[in-house]
Amino acid sequence: MEKKIKRIGVLTSGGDSPGMNAAVRAVVRTALSCGIECVGIRRGWQGLINGDFVLLNGASVGHILSRGGTILYTARSDDFLTEKGRKRAVATCKTLGLDGVVAIGGDGTFRGALELSRLGVPVVGVPATIDNDIGCSNYTIGFDTACNTAIECIDRLRDTMQSHERCSVVEVMGRNAGFLALYVGIAVGAVAVLVPEHELDFQRDVVERIQNSRLAGNTHFMIVVAEGVGSAVEIGKRITEEVGIEARVTVLGHIQRGGSPTGRDRETATRMGYYAVKAFYEGRKNCIICTQEGGIVEIPIEEALKMEKHLQMDRYHIMEAMQLGGSIANNL
Ligand code: F6P
After folding, report:
1. Are 120 and 113 in contact (CB under 8 A)?
2. Residue 128 gets which letter from DSSP?
3. 105: number of CA atoms within 13 Å, CB side?
4. 138 and 164 both lie in a single domain
5. How many C-alpha atoms does 198 have within 13 Å on its Cβ side?
6. Which atom of ligand 1 is nearest to 257's Cα?
7. 3-state class of 171 per DSSP?
8. Mean per-residue pLDDT for 187-215?
9. Is 107 a catalytic residue?
């Protein structure tokens, strides 16, 4: 491989996700193995504006593979949305002698990356968000860990719901997407999963599901609600009023973002971090490192940002098929 760059920066931006540290480690270790120096930019794009950085060597990223969160800190930067802020970020890149920046994060991070690339700073993006809502990549770092964390919490809830013969309404994250909710809902055997991608008919999707399940012998019920659907508290109230069953609401919140990354997230993050540096090293830039059908591909940022990802509705029908006393004949 022909060496073209001497020094790169790496940053994490937006909501943190388990596995970001593994990606940072992979970027640093791969860079060093190619003879490239690596500078950690702290607090995302805001850190680039403020010149908030730390020099990284192989040892500085030791023992972080198994740690959740991000050692580089993260932020959502309003200043970076302004031209003035972005120009200051470019000035920092010049001062630090950065030949490129690896930006680890989600949609907002990549929109920032596109703006920076337009100002002449080469950027490579690595998708990391528990929402799994990045159109260009079928997987984003942190999704698997967040699913497993939510599943573990809901399994615990089930014990007490079953004992009291109640209905549990659990709100999971995902911003405007239902990937996390649907995956988790299938894995915990939810009676209903409410996602923004499926228009809610409360009578059909909640009331009748619970009633059918009750007629089939169930005495407790688990409902998973994606945060993009609306308030789980309101849904809980309606269940109590319209079905006449005691409901308890749990908003899992930021607990889903923490914890040690799963094997899948550690391995994917390591591969993505490696390929991000490889792209720079081989003279490519302004792309996002994506997973598609099991392999890694590079997609230009501008094109990647236009790509959409749709919730797999077959998974929704599979969830329906698992219901006691339900009928999905029309969907098969
Ligand atoms: O995008 C990741 C995410 O965790 C979303 O699921 C959630 O809606 C949002 O971030 C929460 O953001 P914050 O940490 O700013 O409250």
Report:
1. no
2. B
3. 27
4. no
5. 23
6. 4
7. strand
8. 97
9. no
* Whether residue 209 has its Cβ less than 6 Å from ligand 1: no
Whether 76 and 128 share a structural domain: yes
The answer to whether position 315 is within a domain reads no
Alpha-helical regions (H) of 80-178: 83-96, 107-118, 143-164
Residue owning tokens 């550690």:
266
Asked whether the predicted pLDDT for residue 259 surpasses 60, the reply is: yes
Decide if 146 contacts 139 (C-beta within 8 A).
Answer: no
Indicate which residue's Cα is closest to atom 2 of ligand 1: 15
Q: Examine the domain organization and report whether 272 and 244 are in the same domain.
A: no
- Residue 14 region, left (φ>0) first, then alpha (ψ -120 to 50), else beta? left
Decide: pTM greater than 0.90.
Answer: yes
Query: Which residue reads 């690596």 in tokens?
Result: 38
73 phi-psi bin (left φ>0, alpha ψ -120 to 50, beta other): left
pLDDT value, residue 280: 98
Question: Is 152 in the same domain as 226?
Answer: yes
Query: Which atom belonging to ligand 1 lies closest to the Cα atom of 173?
Result: 6
Calculate the average pLDDT of the chain: 96
In the chain, the number of structural domains is 2
Asked whether the CA dihedral 110, 103, 89, 79 is positive or negative, the reply is positive
Distance 175 CA to ligand 1 centre (A): 7
Tokens standing for residue 265: 């997230």
In the set 131, 133, 144, 265, the catalytic residue is 131
Relative to beta strand 100-105, strand 123-127 is parallel
